[in-house]
Amino acid sequence: xxxxxxxxxxxxxxxxxxPCTRGLTVEYAGVVDTIVGYTDPHExxxxxxxxxxxxxxxxxxxxxxxxYAGEVDALVALRPPMLKxxxxxxxxxxxxxxxxxxxxxxxxxTVPAGTFSDTxxxxxxxxxxxxxxxxxxxxxxxxxxRGATIMQAVRVLRPSxx
Length: 162
Fold this sequence. Notes:
Blueprint (H helix, E strand, L loop, with lengths): L1 H8 L15 E4 L2 E8 L7 E6 L5 E5 L3 E7 L2 E2 L5 E4 L7 E4 L2 E8 L3 E3 L2 E3 L2 E8 L2 E8 L3 E7 L2 E9 L5
Antiparallel strand pairs: 1-2, 1-15, 2-3, 3-4, 4-5, 5-6, 5-7, 8-9, 9-12, 10-11, 12-13, 13-14, 14-15
């Protein structure tokens, strides 16, 4: 209960952990995602991400959650939350038949792109198994593990500021 109260008063915007920063690029082994930004006038909350060699995809950025919105040319109506406020260890939610839980906040993570401490760790449990995702403030997803498959950020390129 104390965690919830503290999270409420000191809540961080979920968008900090999945920012829509134009030009931010995160490279994983074989995959490169670059933020294009808010480009759809019909859905101004959609952050478009260009994936090198694949179809661009989008996230719906709201103040209380960031949801997967699908591929840009085939947006989905039902948008599972990737992150949902409030961000505190023990928070959980359910979408469709998948359970999500915040298992850690501020636990350091080390990936080939570096070591980061301002993190949110999400565990996802469904009929198809269990997955863990780690999000870093100002960057986004740096690690995703599902079974024996691990995807880690190998390089982060932040846009230059004028």
